[in-house]
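Weekly puzzle thread! Below is a chain. First person to post its structure in token form gets bragging rights.
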Amino acid sequence: MIIKLIILLTEKKILYAPYNNKTGTGPNPGTKKNGQIMKDRKQFNQVVRQYIIDCIDSENYDVVTTTDAEKLTFLYQTFKSEGGSPEKLRYYKGNEYKTFENWIQGLPSSFNVDFENYRIIEIAKQWESIPQAATDRQEDKILESWFNFITVNTFKLFRKYKIVN
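Winning reply:
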């Protein structure tokens, strides 16, 4: 199970590494970030993490979250109360990642992740995960793994802020 998860995470990292126009693969040290040059994978990950933080919305819950840690704690607690019930965890055989991924596919109001195909493709091109003239196959791979990618990176943040082990 752990080996399978590591392979899955590795595949997602490769898929979402900044695209290198010279070699046709990522990462590219010259990738743009907000009009500047992204130096490496670390900066790419920062862009992804900021996207996730920006998607967290506690406004409809009458909860004030100001720091990243507060936002992530709120998101995890909301997930546990709305989508992470013991029944749903049993359905996904105890896999909290899959349970979370399923929950965000239901478009919870607390986590406003882009879900429209054209928007996901725009983001992937903006992040240079795929070339501007991406093939249908490249776009399909991005679309198929989008929610998993968001889930994996959200759980990285949960672990970073010690919200989960």
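Puzzle host: Confirmed. Bonus trivia for everyone else. Strands lie at 31-33, 36-38.
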